[in-house]
């Protein structure tokens, strides 16, 4: 009996390991250059006061990502495909154009993060960016989905550097845990806007498109849905666990000494006087790893979404000649995204802000599409949302819409 139980547990572990990947990679890739900059600003401007919000966002992220993964497993189709089939070409075209603009500006930000992180170690952007662009294209063009996913999972180890940086910063752990579970809020405009940015950088439209497409590309069977859910939940926890330590590291050092920042590079440089060169170096290494993963995922996400929406062949298991539109979009994003960084006097901060605003406009629309799809029995069969799940999901959607509206009207209120 005991031997049978052990075999059953081993089988379950092996099944989880075979399914794991899409959820973990998608959520982790969301901690990209702009994400790290946002979390660093949260810590440097408001200390530990927003940690409770990050805790709640983790739950929302897990709920939304589970919906995307479930649709991919049950239907065998990507999100763009389902939107086109159920909401028409016009709405699909609008979503794709908006997503294209947002993802492209974010991709430029990833290459900016690569340049900034290696410049801390004395490497010129004119060396780092072209070499990285070639490397990204090589990995995507030469690997199957499973090989590429393994590379992504390996790359995620670099994020551990943020955990180490958090401990090197020697935070007040009593205050950290207090603020994680005891909410505090301020209606000060900067607090509201940074809080919105924290949500916007954690839950983005491209994540839903990429996750669902990668689940389909991996070929996860419906009988393994419960294991795919574990992958999603693990991803949501892991990405915000890393975000937690970014906030802690900057709160314990920069906030404590009244130092403001605008970029993740600023945070990495500013940490050194207070937490030592190792903390600063590890923060920069984390920025490089995060930006590199983002430089892979954003072009891939866009290529999946657009080719699905308009019926072109796609997938990493196909060769360039079999899916020219898919690989063409990826190549365009890599070449132009990297090329822009090599131009002098590029307003990178403004580009990132534009990308986040576009994401903010698109996200509620995409989430409503997802809720309608996951409640359609003709599409999902017995796997539609439960009543309890719908309540949680709709509360999340309404909350994001309210915060997005605040983001949009805030500039007019300040006139």
Automatic annotation (TrEMBL):
<feature type="transmembrane region" description="Helical">
    <location>
        <begin position="45"/>
        <end position="64"/>
    </location>
</feature>
<keyword id="KW-0813">Transport</keyword>
<feature type="transmembrane region" description="Helical">
    <location>
        <begin position="189"/>
        <end position="211"/>
    </location>
</feature>
<feature type="transmembrane region" description="Helical">
    <location>
        <begin position="391"/>
        <end position="413"/>
    </location>
</feature>
<dbReference type="GO" id="GO:0015086">
    <property type="term" value="F:cadmium ion transmembrane transporter activity"/>
</dbReference>
<dbReference type="Pfam" id="PF01566">
    <property type="entry name" value="Nramp"/>
</dbReference>
<feature type="transmembrane region" description="Helical">
    <location>
        <begin position="281"/>
        <end position="304"/>
    </location>
</feature>
<feature type="transmembrane region" description="Helical">
    <location>
        <begin position="232"/>
        <end position="255"/>
    </location>
</feature>
<protein>
    <submittedName>
        <fullName>Natural resistance-associated macrophage protein</fullName>
    </submittedName>
</protein>
<keyword id="KW-0472">Membrane</keyword>
<keyword id="KW-1133">Transmembrane helix</keyword>
<feature type="transmembrane region" description="Helical">
    <location>
        <begin position="349"/>
        <end position="371"/>
    </location>
</feature>
<feature type="transmembrane region" description="Helical">
    <location>
        <begin position="151"/>
        <end position="169"/>
    </location>
</feature>
<dbReference type="GO" id="GO:0005384">
    <property type="term" value="F:manganese ion transmembrane transporter activity"/>
</dbReference>
<feature type="transmembrane region" description="Helical">
    <location>
        <begin position="93"/>
        <end position="114"/>
    </location>
</feature>
<dbReference type="GO" id="GO:0005886">
    <property type="term" value="C:plasma membrane"/>
</dbReference>
<dbReference type="InterPro" id="IPR001046">
    <property type="entry name" value="NRAMP_fam"/>
</dbReference>
<keyword id="KW-0812">Transmembrane</keyword>
<feature type="transmembrane region" description="Helical">
    <location>
        <begin position="325"/>
        <end position="343"/>
    </location>
</feature>
<feature type="transmembrane region" description="Helical">
    <location>
        <begin position="120"/>
        <end position="139"/>
    </location>
</feature>
<dbReference type="GO" id="GO:0034755">
    <property type="term" value="P:iron ion transmembrane transport"/>
</dbReference>
């Amino acid at each position: 009996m005991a031997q049978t139980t052990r075999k059953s547990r081993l089988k379950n572990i092996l099944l989880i390991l075979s399914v794991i990947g899409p959820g973990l990679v998608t959520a982790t890739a969301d901690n990209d250059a702009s994400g790290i900059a946002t979390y660093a600003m949260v810590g440097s401007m408001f200390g530990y006061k927003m940690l409770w919000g990050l805790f709640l966002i983790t739950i929302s992220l897990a709920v939304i990502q589970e919906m995307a993964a479930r649709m991919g497993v049950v239907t065998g189709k990507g999100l763009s495909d389902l939107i086109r089939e159920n909401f028409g070409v016009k709405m699909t075209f609008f979503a794709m154009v908006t997503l294209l603009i947002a993802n492209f500006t974010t991709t430029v930000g990833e290459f900016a993060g690569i340049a900034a992180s290696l410049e801390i170690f004395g490497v010129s952007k004119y060396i780092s960016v072209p070499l990285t662009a070639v490397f990204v294209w090589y990995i995507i063009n030469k690997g199957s989905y499973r090989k590429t996913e393994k590379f992504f999972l390996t790359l995620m180890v670099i994020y551990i550097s943020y955990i180490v940086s958090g401990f090197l910063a020697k935070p007040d752990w009593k205050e950290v845990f207090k603020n994680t579970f005891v909410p505090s809020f301020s209606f000060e405009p900067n607090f509201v806007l940074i809080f919105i940015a924290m949500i916007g950088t954690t839950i983005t439209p491209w994540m839903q498109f990429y996750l669902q497409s990668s689940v389909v590309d991996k070929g996860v069977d419906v009988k393994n849905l419960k294991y795919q859910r574990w992958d999603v939940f693990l991803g949501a926890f892991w990405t915000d666990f890393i975000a937690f330590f970014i906030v802690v590291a900057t709160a314990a050092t920069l906030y404590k000494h009244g130092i403001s920042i605008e970029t993740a590079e600023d945070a990495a440089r500013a940490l050194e006087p207070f937490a030592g060169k190792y903390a600063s170096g590890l923060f920069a290494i984390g920025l490089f790893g995060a930006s590199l993963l983002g430089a892979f995922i954003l072009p891939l996400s866009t290529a999946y979404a657009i080719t699905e929406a308009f019926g072109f062949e796609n997938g990493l298991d196909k060769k360039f000649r079999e899916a020219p539109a898919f690989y063409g979009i990826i190549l365009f994003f890599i070449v132009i995204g990297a090329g822009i960084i090599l131009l002098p006097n590029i307003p990178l901060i403004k580009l990132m802000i534009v990308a986040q605003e576009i994401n903010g406009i698109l996200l509620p629309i995409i989430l409503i599409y997802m809720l309608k799809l996951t409640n359609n029995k003709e599409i999902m069969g017995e796997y539609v949302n439960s009543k309890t799940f719908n309540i949680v999901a709709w509360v999340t959607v309404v909350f994001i819409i309210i915060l997005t509206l605040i983001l949009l009207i805030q500039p007019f209120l300040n006139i």
